[in-house]
Design a protein that fits this description.
Chain A: It is a multi-pass membrane protein. The complex is a heterodimer. Helix content of chain A is 70%, strand content 0%. Chain A is an all-alpha fold. In chain A, helix 4 (94-125) runs parallel beside helix 7 (167-174), helix 4 (94-125) crosses helix 11 (220-236) and helix 13 (253-264) packs antiparallel against helix 14. Chain B has 14 helices and 2 strands, in the order ααββαααααααααααα. Classes of the chains: A mainly alpha, B mainly alpha. The interface between A and B is large, with 107 and 105 residues.
């Protein structure tokens, strides 16, 4: 969020009257620009307020959160809440919850990248009977409320004795169950010139060669968007772990947070909010580093946040 | 063999070339299905199979421990006499009907504000987008609960203006506005998509309209709205479908109970409670299938009515 550069805007553009054919006086233009920034900054303050409040509260002693002191800043600034939050809950340290979340998120990224890219290659670059029908079904699953499959899936995994393992949470990632990523990659690959594979075919390359040595390197932007989003979605996922995980040692952060809320109730607000901050930290860091990728990905692919 | 008649008819291509082509086609079919295998396996084992099985379960009594007992349409008929179910429908519909249009209106308004060549546009766009990335998380649900709680910052802020509502979290008539604010707060994702759509509208249209003396309102309804209609359609469809599926925030804010007084008993939360707390899995399956049918009908209605208001470029009007 610190990057303010807008590469689309170049210096000569700024002076050219783009919108209004009637040339305005410099003063009127400045007033308009000032009004724009006033409105936009006010809106920024409103939108970012919950985040700022969360961060500010995480450094406040319990007595001041929701107390008479409404200012964001407290004179009793301390890391106590974070110390308590790092202790964890139910005999499990917060570091363990972090590790669990990380294992699940990285597993999701690897699985999604592998399965979605291979399946997308079939949809985008190989002609085979039934392709159109399957593609339509894949799109339909994008709109399908997934609640219709969670009960039978649970029953299957329960009968296989896989409840309370990470397998039910990860197997779908390795089977391209997140249709959105398949769709994203299909769209991306369709925009790559067809001459590429034709030339490779004439040289005798098969699909495996074309996929690994031509497509994959060119798909880097799509692979990066997919990695970022599948990481964040897995990191934030609540329902999946809630259904399948029973032992706190295996909990990822969202479930640990729920446990924390359940056990402390509102008695230790500060630590609860500090833990919420910790849980969001990787997502926020991701966002700061990859914001351009993320926002561009959303605007071109219609990815949901 | 069966191909030979077609071979002879097409005199332009030589027989060996045709043969090579059909061989290629066979190889392509094999390769196609091999590459598609991960998705196909997942589709069958994790989507189609479970869908059929939940359809079957929806006609049974099943508690995970005893074999399912066929009861016909009983689950469905019971649903419509189940007050908690009807309440969950009301809560969810209210949320979808008020939350989604408000969120999209905010998204469109801000996108139009940002759609100009001004410094800082990239910064604002990123800042406004950020909530969409974290809004559905447990952390934000906890923050929301604290912010709208008794003597939280929202309560304090309103008291300053002489409005004393107390905590919104414990007040059944204020929980819905709280959830609607939570979804409107995440206007960034549709906004970014709107912004991309607005950039596609040629400036000449606005210039020509200005010369004809059109004001901003007319420009909006005669240029922006029709030109943007495919994007509006996409956002409306996706946001509506997603709104039906809100879960984590509802679970956390209400401690997994849907209270106070059932005012946060969202559809998926009730489904979860029935299926995984009461282990009434047949009943929950019936709920899930009803949701699929309703979402399907809504999607269909959207596509049907879209012909009258969604204009794709290149359309002969």
């Amino acid at each position: 969020m610190t990057t303010m550069a807008t590469p689309t805007q170049s210096a000569p553009d700024a002076s050219a009257p783009v919108y209004n054919p009637k040339s305005e006086s410099a003063g009127a233009k400045r007033a308009k620009s000032l009004a724009f920034h006033a409105v936009a900054l006010l809106l920024t303050a409103v939108v970012l307020y919950p985040g700022l409040w969360m961060i500010a509260s995480s450094f406040k002693p319990n007595s001041e959160i929701g107390g008479a002191n409404t200012s964001l800043w407290s004179s009793n600034f301390s890391f106590d809440n974070f110390v308590t939050a790092m202790d964890g809950i139910g005999g499990v340290s917060t570091l363990q919850f972090f590790t669990n979340s990380l294992v699940l998120a990285l597993g999701a990224v690897v699985g999604t990248i592998l399965s979605a890219s291979v399946s997308a290659y079939a949809f985008a670059r190989i002609k085979f009977p039934g392709r159109g029908i399957f593609f339509g079904m894949m799109i339909a699953t994008l709109l399908l409320p997934f609640h219709v499959v969670i009960i039978p899936q649970y029953i299957i995994f329960q009968q296989l004795g896989l409840v309370d393992t990470y397998i039910p949470l990860l197997i779908g990632k390795f089977l391209a169950a997140d249709a959105f990523f398949v769709f994203l990659m299909v769209q991306f690959m369709r925009n790559l010139p067809a001459e590429l594979d034709e030339a490779a075919r004439i040289d005798g390359a098969g699909h495996v060669r074309i996929f690994t040595s031509i497509m994959l390197p060119l798909m880097k932007p799509a692979l990066i968007s997919t990695s970022i989003f599948s990481f964040i979605w897995s990191w934030n996922d609540f329902l999946g772990p809630l259904l399948y995980l029973n032992t706190p040692e295996k909990y990822p952060l969202p479930l640990a947070l729920r446990l924390f809320v359940d056990q402390t109730q509102s008695s230790d607000y500060g630590a609860m909010i500090a833990m919420s901050v910790l849980a969001l930290l990787p997502v926020l860091i991701f966002f700061l580093i990859f914001q351009r990728y993320i926002v561009e990905g959303v605007s071109t692919q219609g990815l949901k946040g | 063999m069966t191909q030979s008649p077609t071979l002879s008819r097409r005199s332009t291509t030589s027989a060996p070339a045709q043969l090579r082509k059909s061989k290629q086609r066979g190889a392509d079919a094999r390769a196609g299905y091999t590459f598609l295998l991960p998705w196909l396996l997942g589709f069958i084992a994790l989507t189609v199979g479970p869908m059929i099985s939940s359809l079957y379960l929806s006609f049974t009594n099943y508690n995970l421990f005893e074999p399912p007992k066929w009861i016909g349409l009983d689950n469905y008929t019971t649903l419509f006499q189940d007050e908690r179910f009807l309440q969950s429908v009301g809560v969810t519909v209210g949320y979808v009907v008020f939350g989604t249009p408000l969120k999209l209106a905010a998204a469109l308004a801000v996108a139009m504000l940002l759609n100009s060549k001004r410094r800082g546009q990239g910064f604002y766009r990123s800042a406004f987008y950020a909530p969409s990335l974290i809004g559905a998380s447990v952390s934000i649900a906890i923050v929301w609960k604290a912010m709208f709680g008794d003597s939280g910052p929202v309560d304090q802020g309103l008291s300053f203006f002489g409005i004393n509502l107390g905590g919104w979290v414990g007040n059944p008539s204020m929980t819905m506005p709280m959830f609607i604010l939570l979804t409107v707060w995440q206007f960034g994702a549709p906004m970014v998509i709107f912004l991309a759509g607005l950039k596609q509208i040629p400036n000449e249209l606005y210039e020509a309209a200005s010369m004809d003396g059109a004001g901003p309102v007319r420009k909006f309804f005669n240029i922006t709205w029709p030109m943007l209609s495919p994007v509006i359609f996409f956002n409306l469809l996706m946001e509506t479908i997603h709104a039906f599926q809100i879960f984590a925030s509802a679970y956390i804010i209400s401690n997994g109970e849907g209270g106070p007084a059932g005012s946060t008993l969202f559809y998926t939360l009730y489904l979860y409670l029935r299926g995984f707390s009461d282990f009434r899995m047949g009943y929950a399956s019936a709920m899930a299938w009803l949701l699929v049918i309703v979402v399907g009908i809504i999607t269909l209605i959207f596509f049907r009515t879209s012909k009258s208001w969604v204009h794709y470029s290149g359309d002969a009007k």
